[in-house]
User: Which sequence fits this backbone?
């Protein structure tokens, strides 16, 4: 995570909700705090329940690695720009939706 | 034996996750053994005290607990949580292979997914036995006699044995496991939430994190494989499973979503833990019993505070129940105040 971008206020759209959040925060924590519509079972990139599609701002999310890549490959079924909300840190403005 | 189409999507993912788990194994026994060696570290907390739903700030007696007493109280809660989780896992052991053998070809990928999960459960049970020995001095607090409500799952499975097709039996088992699992995971997932790492027992946090990661796969397996088998079951079996799941879900909603925190299962659990902790030497000078405290709270109008972690866990359970109902296309009908509250949590903010 880029420390110089951490803590700045950025705009995040989750589904239809537009939120002002601090960069560096975990997307799942933001969703939980704002009671938005991303479902989860674990927080360990194992269950794939919290899969989201990044509609804008993929470059503003923390990079994907390890277990997340394995799970995303299976749950995305070839769709692009899928991530797991439990593994993503918000580094700048973005727009995400739950995976249909 | 009914023919089962492989649940390909789930299987591919699970197999990769297991391969990953074998490359970077998380064995928990070491943590349990270390904890057993150390006993209760009275300078640390084992869970967030607010998750116990006790009036720790509002009650004149509890608000003056010493840090060591608070540590013992949370250690007892931690031990209680994991003895219940271990009991639930011992139920899973019994039926995992049985249901698997009834539905899947021996050593098929589906069979092996459940086999691997069974092997993991043994590691967890050994770990939690050590945790209980460390914190409450007894490892033999795992089993249905300590947690009678966990007998409901085997009882229900036995009641339906022979009345369900093989796929139906597998589905019933896995969906019941899902319900059981989410009840326990909310305990595990939220009892250390909001706890400052500086005051938390590092071993407790490692056990929670390690087990939660392992267990996450089981939750997904239970739901997706359970639903897959449900769709392949006979109409009569689907009808029976739907009825049983409705009853189970209503019961869970009643126990979890009352507006009065003191009327919830979580409060009763917290009170039970307090009752046992008061027997610890650290509480030798404590003047009242748990029952006397409860009476005092009632007579003095001391409310049971619903902590933020408790509220988060309720939202999580509601979301999971909704997900199950939608996956099974189950219509749940309103059943009073607790049900209305569940709906509110399940639907999220307007």
Assistant:
């Amino acid at each position: 995570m880029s420390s110089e971008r951490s803590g700045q206020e950025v705009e995040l759209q989750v589904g239809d909700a537009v939120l002002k959040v601090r960069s560096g925060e975990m997307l799942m924590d933001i969703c939980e705090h704002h009671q938005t519509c991303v479902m989860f079972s674990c927080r360990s990139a194992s269950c794939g329940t919290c899969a989201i599609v990044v509609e804008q701002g993929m470059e503003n999310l923390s990079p994907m690695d390890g277990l997340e890549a394995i799970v995303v490959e299976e749950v995305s079924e070839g769709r692009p720009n899928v991530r797991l909300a439990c593994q993503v840190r918000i580094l700048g403005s973005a727009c995400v939706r739950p995976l249909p | 034996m009914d023919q089962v189409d492989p649940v390909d999507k789930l299987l591919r993912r699970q197999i990769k996750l297991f391969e990953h788990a074998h490359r970077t194994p998380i064995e928990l026994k070491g943590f349990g053994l270390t904890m057993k060696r150390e006993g209760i570290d009275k300078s640390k907390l084992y869970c967030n005290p607010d998750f116990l739903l006790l009036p720790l700030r509002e009650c004149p007696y509890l608000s003056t607990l010493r840090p060591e007493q608070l540590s013992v109280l949370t250690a007892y809660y931690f031990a209680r949580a994991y003895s219940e989780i271990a009991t639930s896992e011992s139920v899973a052991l019994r039926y995992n292979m049985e249901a698997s053998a009834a539905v899947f070809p021996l050593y098929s990928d589906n069979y092996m997914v459940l086999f691997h999960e069974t092997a993991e459960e043994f590691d967890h049970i050994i770990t939690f036995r050590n945790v209980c020995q460390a914190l409450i001095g007894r490892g033999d607090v795992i089993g249905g006699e300590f947690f009678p409500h966990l007998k409901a799952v085997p009882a229900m499975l036995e009641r339906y044995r022979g009345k369900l097709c093989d796929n139906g039996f597998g589905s019933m088992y896995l969906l019941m496991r899902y319900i059981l699992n989410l009840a326990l995971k909310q305990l595990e997932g939220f009892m250390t939430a909001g706890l400052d790492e500086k005051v938390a027992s590092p071993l407790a946090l490692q056990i929670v994190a390690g087990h939660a990661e392992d267990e996450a796969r089981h939750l997904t397996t239970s739901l997706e494989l359970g639903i897959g088998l449900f769709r392949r079951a006979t109409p009569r079996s689907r009808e029976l499973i739907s009825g049983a799941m409705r009853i189970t879900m209503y019961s869970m909603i009643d126990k979890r979503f009352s507006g009065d925190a003191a009327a919830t299962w979580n409060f009763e659990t917290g009170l039970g833990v307090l009752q046992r902790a008061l027997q610890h030497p650290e509480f030798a000078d404590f003047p009242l019993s748990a029952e006397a405290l409860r009476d005092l709270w009632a007579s003095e109008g001391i409310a049971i505070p619903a902590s933020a972690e408790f509220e988060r866990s309720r939202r999580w359970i509601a979301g999971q129940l909704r997900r199950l109902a939608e996956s099974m296309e189950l219509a749940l009908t309103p059943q009073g105040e607790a049900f209305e509250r569940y709906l509110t949590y399940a639907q999220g903010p307007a």
The mean pLDDT of chain B is 89. The longest helix of chain B spans residues 67-103.
